[in-house]
Amino acid sequence: MADFIVGSVARDDDFYFREEFIEDLWEALEKHNVLLLAPRRTGKTSVMYRLLDRPKDSWLVIHLNVEDLKTPGNFVISPIDAINEHQPAYLRNTLAKGWSFLSDTLSRIERIEMSEFKLQLREKENAEKKWQERGSETDGSVNNYV
User: Fold this and answer.
1) Rounded to an integer, what distance in angstroms lies between the CA atom of residue 144 and that of residue 57?
2) Are residues 49 and 99 in the same domain?
3) 48 and 97 fall within a common domain
4) Is the per-residue pLDDT at 82 higher than 80?
5) Which terminus of the chain, N or C, has less C-beta within 10 A?
């Protein structure tokens, strides 16, 4: 019998006993959104990292921990940062294809830092008040080029 060790997220060789569940999860994700509900310490995070570590062909997986996000505006901007972290080539390609969307956005940009791809909007933009509008614009532009 295998030893079960309570500790950090199970990845790589430490991830076992769940391959059938992972296949079922990929199949469910083809058709629906999925909500994983289970007691603490049962492997939900390990399962999500398995999707990230070994994505199915043609899938782009990102990881975004929203626990510390305090405002809707942060929630709208954070997925872009997560895509840049986990799928930078996809982000570059999407940005290249979506230049018309960016041309409207450029007038609102105050500063860009390339070392970690940081973008700061001008104060007058106030993303906190217009988060729904900006989220819809971002969602629409990404979906148009997927």
Assistant:
1) 20
2) no
3) no
4) yes
5) N
pTM: 0.57
Domain that residue 45 falls in: 12-53
As a whole number of Å, the CA-based R_g of the chain is 18
The amino acid at 117: F
**Residue 63: band (very low, low, confident or very high) from pLDDT cuts 50, 70, 90:** confident
Q: Give the whole-angstrom CA distance, residue 80 versus residue 85.
A: 9
Kindly report the number of other CB atoms within 10 A of residue 55's CB atom: 15
What is the per-residue pLDDT across 128-143, written as a single tens digit (0 to 9) for each?
667 777 677 766 655 5
CA distance 48 to 52: 6
| 62 located within any domain | no
